[in-house]
Amino acid sequence: MLLxxxxxxxxxxxxxxxxEFLFFxxxxxxFVDAAMAPLGFGxxxxxxxxxxxxxxxxIRQKTIRFFKQCLKRQVYYLGKSQVIAKMTYxxxxxxxxxxxxxxxxxxxxxxxxxxxxxxxxSLFRNIIDHRWGLNRIPPERLRLYFERRYDYDVRFxxxxxxxxxxxxxxxxxxxxxxxxLLKNDLSKAIEKFLEFTGLTISKELQAKIEQQIxxxxxxxxxxxxxxxxxxGLSRERIAKDLSFVFDRYGFKK
Length: 253
Fold this sequence. Notes:
Elements: H1 32-35, H2 47-50, H3 57-78, H4 94-100, E1 106-110, H5 113-131, H6 139-165, E2 174-178, H7 179-184, H8 186-197, H9 203-216, H10 235-241, H11 243-249
Parallel strand pairs: 1-2
């Protein structure tokens, strides 16, 4: 058990989680800052881990080569010609990934910053507490950490929108999918996903999806997100800093 449900998304060696965790192996992921080393509490920060697309070519090539080998093993094990990877944090290395996988299809799940930011910060707070103990960290260092994490969240949104505006993605390889649609009409969301990716699903998976649709309305996570104020933030500040996201996707301010 790496993380229990009460701390965050349950993470074990045998559970399904983000492929981003693979990059722990080569110490090239933002998760290193909270789960393995106190980088986020120092004065310098870790922008070099955030902006993975801007890392030196040697490091980018090593990272993509490692990830490609991981996917090759998965393809061999599953006997599939296509595989799905959940790689939220790898948006910041998306150009490097597209160079290595030019036929990849990208599904960008879009959710209101009012929901993503407290969820993200609560996740890392719980990871820190589980791994190190919040009471062992000076309050001023915690404030610095969460302020830095919030700044990186804003940069995340900015980076995606800059790439979209530049026309980096072809219409055939990039699709936005509303998180609200996933939550409120999972069947429709999966239909759009399958149409875009060209994937097919088995009868067994379809049956599991139907079960998920039936139970989704009553699902309650084991962990609770804290309020924005717990991290020194406000709705007004988020609306100002991320106005381009609210305006583009029609989220309520």
